[in-house]
Amino acid sequence: MHLPPPLPPPLPATGRGVLVSGASRGLGRAVAHAFAAGGDRVAVHYGSRREDALRTLDGLPGTGHVLAGGDLSDAAGAAAVAEVAAERLGGIDVLVNNAAVNERHPLAETPYDAWADVWQRHVSVNLLATANLSHLAARRMIDQGTAGRIINIGSRGAFRGEPDHPAYGATKAAVHART
Q1: Per the confidence metrics, is the pTM higher than 0.90?
Q2: Does 168 participate in catalysis according to the annotation?
Q3: Active-site pick, 43, 68, 126, 168
């Protein structure tokens, strides 16, 4: 009988408090799972997809994980998310800025009012939320006296442009520059 190769040993538990924005599905869910598998406590942020976030939370290995729902498109919402995460995790040691919007809005097809709204949402979430959460987490790390980490999720759209999604490409380029 042929046995499969043994699994690698689990990563050592670090016990860090990790806030992952936009963790209800996709890449954010995968990142949350990876940190939890490494022994970290994860705050699963969601904006509007609570049911998806609950599925993410329920699928995380380990214990001590929490939900941190809230609207990151304004500064007060970002502050509330950071506060909930820090309080429930006992601090924030790692921040993963993953939350983003990506709405189609080609110039030739998009009326001006819709164009301006789409750009405002992209700037508010993709750029300003990243900057605001980074400031809030960094201040906590400094005040805690801990060496923390901030990870910003970018996009290839920042380098190649996105003709049907220009605000997405531009705001992701700004995130790269800010990082």
Answers
A1: no
A2: yes
A3: 168
